[in-house]
Design goal:
The complex is a heterodimer of chains A (225) and B (595). By secondary structure, chain A is of the alpha+beta class. Chain A contains eight helices and six strands; from the N terminus they run αβααββααβααββα. A four-stranded antiparallel sheet of chain A has the order 2-3-1-4, with helices on both faces. A two-stranded antiparallel sheet of chain A has the order 5-6. The N and C termini of chain A lie far apart (135 Å). In chain B, strand 1 and strand 2 form a beta hairpin. Classes of the chains: A alpha+beta (225), B mainly alpha (595).
């Protein structure tokens, strides 16, 4: 029996070796960048890590296609380089063939996150070269943030404008009331003082009792010829 | 009855006046034009023509405008009317140019608001490309250009391919523009009383931000590369006439001469104010701010260039590592060159296949990308900021500073328009000051909505390049000749001595009478020759399919607008002079017939 086992085993290995080759049918190339991702904490890629990888791929296929029969031995790795990169295929346990690429691709895409996490890597540092990654959609809040801030600033400015205009009108009304209360004789002189360069004094909003320095300048009383 | 001297609103103290002038003069040009000129025209060597032009042109013309305003105590129209009734057109031309400027300048503040509001997000919206519809890759336009260019041209401007395609008004930009005008209205509402308080903030805050940025910028990785690149003087550029012309032009436009804003500000001064001292202070502060801002800009440039250079090197390393299945981390930037030759000799076939994809990374070429204007602030700076830590904070600070600079300049522009209007009795007797300012703001805002169209940026560029440049040179030339030769230099000197008590030194007299007018005439000749030689005028249009700018010719209606902009202001001077002459002849004719 042992004599019969040996050629079968070697046949299986030869067939397996033929199944997993670079650019073989249904084969995928995987590339890991451990030093880029982990720096000093990078672990060495050895057979134990390969075992974990095979386990993750087998797990993905089991959960995706509900094929409870897929074992770690069905995942074949070959052409492992120092990069680290390698090729892998998944064989069908019932037939001596590789599983179709689309099935493997979908399975890995579904569980991509868990595979990445098992190795402390991400989509950029653990690359499946023929399997495009689905980029995560950006989180969009329901109201864009800028409108909220715009609304706040806008309302503050409008409130400021309204306050300034109202206080200006209020002061003007107070001044005109004070004017009408004093006598008519004083009105004539008042009008000379309160109109400056065509601008009514009250809109200047000068504080009560402020000295108008322009009147203090002596030289200006003499108009130039 | 003795005619009592009519008083004017005044600055509460001379510091407000200085701050107002600084706030007006120190604007966006100091931040985004001077560093570009420095880079183009010889780095540290550019400071030589710049400082010479400051002494020959900047300080004298600034002092002239401040002295005229303080002496005549009127806005630009009234002031030039007092110098000579034939020259009222100079004042009107100033008001027209200021009007054009305020129309388009506030659009920059609108963009600053937009970027400021978007800085409160994590991550910043311009830091990465948005995804395309099937979430498999990035948006094509964003991929071809860069994420900051995409955010500026597509998300902010939503720019159309050419000036003919106008598109629709972008409501987001329109909202920001309305907000910008409301802020300006809030500041000018009460005249000098409110403006005087606001300029304390708008003049000093940019310096605080610049200092913070200087400290951060100098500590960034790679900043030294940018500074070394900028300050290494390339003295051979001094022989290039364009260097001197650019220095003269930059000093001229940076101080904001000819708009009437300086005359307006000075007209609110006490007559005894020492405006000579203030003119020197303001022009020195303006120039040192330019130099200071370019130190900050170049440290940021250095950081960005180093970052891009190192990314480029990393991409090449990754490409080679993947092609030849070398061990991860084997190739470093140190051994890259020798490994490239080793690989080329060991695997010639594979190397020649991958060779076209290997980019030649060069720090020099990254530093060489000289950008000015809106491109510098909204594309290059944002690219540098997104790579800094706590980028939201730096972004907020930066755009807040741009906003302060922009609003400070807007206050000066609107003062240039409002002061002549409130001086004229016809208008100010009918409407209160608040209503006049409000009307100006509304009119400018409505016209400014043109710049929120999809082709708005192209119209903006027309205004930016042509509305003020030629006209200002002419206006200031006529101003200088008017004061020195028509009003009389000796008479003006006497007026100043009576008013302020300082005697005019020979330096000012020589500059006003000979040197500055000659400089301006040569600048004018250069500009005219340049326009004529260039033939047709062109503009830069954004091509979305290629992801970069392309040069296109202006169509007829755009050229007509350019002509109109230049003519509207420059023609005021001769037309009003002619009009006054005709009116005087008719009056003389009437009086002679009566007599």
């Amino acid at each position: 029996m042992l004599v019969a086992l040996f050629p079968t085993l070697s046949l299986v290995t030869v067939i397996h070796a033929q199944l997993c080759q670079p650019d073989a049918e249904n084969a995928f190339k995987v590339r890991l960048s451990l030093k880029t991702a982990l720096g000093d904490k990078a672990y060495a890629w050895n057979r134990n890590e390969e075992y974990l990888f095979k386990a993750m791929v087998a797990f993905s296929l089991r959960t995706f296609s509900n094929k409870e029969t897929i074992e770690i031995s069905n995942v074949l790795l070959c052409n492992i380089t120092k990069r680290v990169s390698f090729w892998f295929v998944v064989t069908d346990p019932s037939k001596n063939q590789t599983l179709p690429a689309s099935e493997v691709q979908e399975a890995i895409r579904m569980n991509r996150n868990r595979i990445n996490n098992a190795f402390f890597l991400n989509d950029q540092t653990l690359e499946f070269l023929e399997i495009p990654t689905t980029l995560g959609p950006p989180t969009e809040p329901s109201t864009p943030i800028w409108i909220i801030i715009f609304g706040v600033v806008f309302s503050l400015v409008v409130v400021g404008i309204v306050l300034l205009i109202m206080s200006g009108i209020h002061k003007q009304r107070r001044k005109s009331k004070a004017l009408t209360e004093t006598g008519d004789v004083e009105d004539k002189y008042e009008t000379v003082v309160t109109i400056e360069n065509g601008i009514p004094c009250d809109t200047l909003d000068s504080k009560e009792g402020r000295i108008n320095r322009a009147f203090a300048a002596d030289g200006e009383k003499l108009t130039s010829l | 009855m003795v005619e009592m001297e009519k008083a004017r609103p005044q600055w509460s103290n001379p510091l407000q006046f200085v701050f107002a002038c600084i706030s007006y003069a120190v604007g966006l040009g100091n931040v985004w034009r001077f560093p570009y000129l420095c880079q183009m025209y010889g780095g540290g060597g550019f400071l030589v023509p710049y400082l010479i032009m400051l002494i020959l042109e900047g300080m004298p013309l600034l002092y002239l405008e401040l002295a005229v305003g303080q002496r005549m105590r009127q806005g630009s129209i009234g002031a030039w009317n007092m110098i000579s009734p034939y020259l009222r057109g100079v004042g009107i031309a100033s008001v027209v140019v200021s009007f054009f400027l305020s129309m388009y300048y506030n659009m920059i503040n609108a963009w600053s608001f937009w970027y400021l509001f978007h800085s409160f997000q994590d991550p910043l919206p311009w830091s990465s490309c948005s995804l395309n519809s099937n979430l498999m890759g990035y948006d094509e336009e964003c991929d071809r250009a860069s994420s900051t260019q995409y955010f500026w041209y597509r998300k902010t401007l939503n720019i159309s391919p050419s000036i003919q395609e106008n598109g629709v008004i972008q409501w987001e930009q329109a909202l920001c523009l309305i907000l910008a005008w409301l802020v300006v209205y809030l500041c000018i509402l009460r005249g000098t009383e409110s403006t005087g308080k606001v300029v304390y903030v708008t003049a000093s805050l940019p310096y605080c931000v610049l200092i913070i940025y200087l400290v951060r910028g100098l500590t960034l990785h790679g900043a030294v590369n940018g500074l070394a690149y900028m300050f290494t003087p390339k003295l051979e550029q001094l022989a290039n006439p364009k260097t001197w012309i650019s220095a003269a032009t930059q000093i001229f436009f940076s101080l904001g001469l000819g708009f009437g804003s300086l005359i307006a500000f000075a007209s609110y001064n006490k007559p005894s104010n020492n405006c000579q001292k203030h003119a020197i202070i303001v022009s020195l502060i303006n120039s040192s701010t330019s130099i200071f801002a370019s130190i900050v800009t170049f440290s940021i440039y250095g950081f960005k260039a180093t970052f891009n250079y190192e990314s480029c090197i990393n991409k090449v390393i990754l490409l080679l590592t993947n092609t030849f299945d070398l061990e991860d981390g084997f190739l470093t930037s140190g051994n890259l060159e020798e490994m490239k030759t080793h690989l080329a000799s060991t695997y010639p076939k594979e190397y020649s296949e991958v060779f076209p994809q290997i980019k030649n990374c060069s720090l020099e070429s990254e530093l060489d990308t000289a950008v000015q204007g809106t491109g510098l602030s909204f594309i290059v700076y944002t690219e540098a900021i997104k790579n800094m830590e706590v980028s939201q904070l730096w972004s907020v600070l930066y755009f807040f500073m741009l906003l302060m600079l922009g609003i400070g300049s807007m206050l000066g522009n609107t003062a240039a328009i409002l002061t002549p209007l409130t001086d004229s009795k016809a208008i100010s007797s009918r409407l209160p000051k608040e209503a006049i300012s409000g009307l100006i703001c509304i009119i400018n805002c409505v016209i400014g909505l043109t710049f929120t169209l999809e082709s708005g940026n192209y119209w903006f560029d027309i205004f930016n390049d042509y509305a003020a440049t030629l006209s200002l040179l002419l206006i200031v030339l006529v101003e200088t000749i008017a004061v020195c030769y028509i009003y009389g230099l000796r008479r003006f000197e006497n007026d100043l001595q009576v008013m302020t008590g300082c005697k005019l030194s020979w330096y000012w007299k020589i500059m006003w009478a000979f040197v500055s007018p000659l400089l301006i005439i040569s600048l004018l000749i250069f500009y005219l020759v340049d326009y004529i030689l260039a033939g047709t005028l062109t503009y830069q249009a954004w091509d979305a399919t290629q992801g970069h700018l392309v040069t296109k010719d202006y169509p007829g209606f755009a050229l007509a607008l350019i002509g109109l902009l230049v003519a509207a202001s420059t023609m005021c001077i001769p037309l009003v002079a002619l009009g006054t002459f005709i009116m005087n002849r008719r009056k003389r004719g009437n009086t002679s017939t009566i007599a």
